[in-house]
Prior knowledge:
The protein has one domain (4-149): YbaK/aminoacyl-tRNA synthetase-associated domain (YbaK protein, Alpha-Beta Complex). Helices cover 26% and strands 28% of the residues. The longest helix has 8 residues, at 4-11. By secondary structure, the protein is of the alpha/beta class. A five-stranded mixed β-sheet has the order 4-2-3-5-8. It has a three-stranded antiparallel β-sheet with strand order 1-7-6, with helices on both faces.
Amino acid sequence: MLTRGMDSLRKLGIQHTVLPYDYQRSGALPAAEALGLDPAQVVKSLVFQSSDGSFLFALLSADAHASEKKLGRASGHKHVHPASTRDAERVTGYRVGGISPLGAKRVLPAVLDRTTAQQDKLVINAGERGVLVRLATADLVRTLEPTVADIRTG
């Protein structure tokens, strides 16, 4: 199986490890649990929509929650809110539970949480339900060129 996310990493020559698991329900936390991984290393890829109608990714660890206010500030938007399931699937080309910035149909700006970015390696969805990839955080940053900022609640 080769997902668009894995294909994009392969084309860029980025080393990664494919981590398949038995998909039961959507979310990075259930994926971390299914694979026995530290939730701080598993990234959830959340799609947000700004007040101007544009979309962006918020990337943060499975055990964290995104602050709309901090995300808006970090992305240069006055207001952001979670995109609808329909919009998230439409702009990424992926189904919820398999959404990834890697190989997404549209290249969207991304904001990576500063605390999450401190991990040496991160695990992120490969673009299909039940398939994650582990890669060096530096490679993820080089690939996505995200803004790195504090976007957590609390």
